[in-house]
Amino acid sequence: MKLIVEKLVTELNHQAIVQDISFYVNEGEFVGVIGPNGSGKSTLLKTLYRVLKPAEGAVMLDDEAITSYQHKEFAKKVAVVGQESSVPFDFSVLDLVLMGRNPHKRLLDQETKVDHDIAIDALKHVGLEGYEQRSFATLSGGEKQRVIIARAIAQEPSFFILDEPTNHLDIHHQLHILDVLQRSNMTVLTALHDLNLAASYCDRIIVMQDGRLVANGSPKETLTKQLLEEVFQVEATIWTHPLTQKVQVMYVSPGMKQGIFDHQLKSWLQS
């Protein structure tokens, strides 16, 4: 399933938050969206999964405009995990994950054994086997996030759109969830804050700044010292991990630099 975005503009309160963005996501690709806070990442994704309407431009999914899909047909193809995991009513974990099966059912259809098996398997994928009867409201933030991801997996989509899916997760579960997504062989477009996770898992990275796309390429092409200074206002050392051969980022804060300078000065004065 291929996504094509052409000259997309999205406005909020008559202000362009996403400005003239064009890119594509090929079938089976794992593409990350990065950028500082307020760069327009969430607004872009909300436009792609039809919460917001574009002011200009086109979004095509398998050569059809996303606006042409009926809600249920779109949900069969695209699963969404947003930043907010709030649920207005309390449900058991299993009931919430079973909601992911709704696009595949007619009105008033009951859940089948196949639906239950798919939901149980989705919970196993996110490491929540045995949580089926737990109340969603009693879970930790990280557990809730994993339930929401399990619900998306239970949809059996062809395309995942995720906005900061590793929020609230400890590092073990961050890696586990991204491993699950990567092994799924589905097309993935996800916003990520952690640049090293983006570098480790993404085939390509889209970089946003002030609502515009400023870079689009492999992690090696996009995560450069110059780009990090210009877009994120941080100084960093870029290196290649000896085991994974993936680009990795080591940050140097002004305080760290000052500490190193003070230590060197003290050693010089004492010599």
From TrEMBL:
Q: Which CDD domains match?
A: ABC_Iron-Siderophores_B12_Hemin
Family annotation (InterPro entries) = AAA+_ATPase, ABC_transporter-like_ATP-bd, ABC_transporter-like_CS, P-loop_NTPase
Keyword entries, A-Z = ATP-binding, Nucleotide-binding
GO terms for molecular function, please? ATP binding
Protein name as annotated: ABC transporter ATP-binding protein
Is this entry keyworded Ubl conjugation? no
Native source species:
Halalkalibacter kiskunsagensis
**One of the Pfam families matching this protein, by short name:** ABC_tran
What residue stretches are annotated with the ABC transporter domain? 3-235
Is Nucleotide-binding among the key words of this record?
A: yes
Please indicate which superkingdom the organism of origin belongs to: Bacteria
Gene3D superfamilies recorded for this chain? P-loop containing nucleotide triphosphate hydrolases (3.40.50.300)
